Amino acid sequence: MPALVAGIHVLVTLNKRKAWMAGTSPAMTGMSRKLTSPVVIATHNPGKLTEMRELLAPYGIATKSAAELGLREPEEAGKTFAANARIKATAAARASGGAAFADDSGLVIPALGGEPGIYSARWAGPRRDFSLAMQTVEDRLRGKPDRHAHFVAVLALAWPDGHAEVFRGEAHGVLIWPPRGDKGFGYDPMFQPHGDTRTYGEIEPAEKHRISHRADAFRKLVAACFEPHKS
Hints:
The structure is a single chain. This protein is of the alpha/beta class. It has helices spanning 2-21, 46-56, 81-96, 130-141, 205-211, 213-225, and strands spanning 39-41, 63-65, 99-108, 148-158, 164-175, 191-193. It has 2 domains: 1-28; 32-225, Maf protein, CATH 3.90.950.10. Helices cover 34% and strands 18% of the residues. 37% of the residues are buried.
């Protein structure tokens, strides 16, 4: 019997390592950890912070942002959204000593070979000027018939011991010009989701939280890591 238990332990350990190496989360392999404590939101982006807090609010989870705690932004050296989300969440968890929640997201444009992708924020320059970023997108798309695009959001929930859960969401649509609306942030004013005539910049935040790429990823995170909410 001890040999059987040891064998099971080795198998579980190997599965966890395989999941980590493959860039998937333990949640994807059927092993998830529940969030039972306050959480650090590992972002210095005001727009993302507001959206994440609004997503978490119905669950009664206390939050602090990385900026409020004076935590440094780690270098996003990953080559994928999942890798960068994990880097940010793990860094904040270890620095704060508690669970941390991070997002890495961006705009993927097939006609531009997937750009700007993980470099979406960098296209806005050091001043995070997304009017400049949107103009760059439009300039590069000029003359191309395919204006389809999708937003990707990967949410990572990490603990100080290195355990992390990672979830991906997407929202598909087309890019319009000129941009419309001032309710969103980033590339929202030029992104029109499929099935709608409005851009993300024209959609009220409460509605966007139900249909966005971040909301898609968040629903998966909630299902795996949150205890059933008691009203």
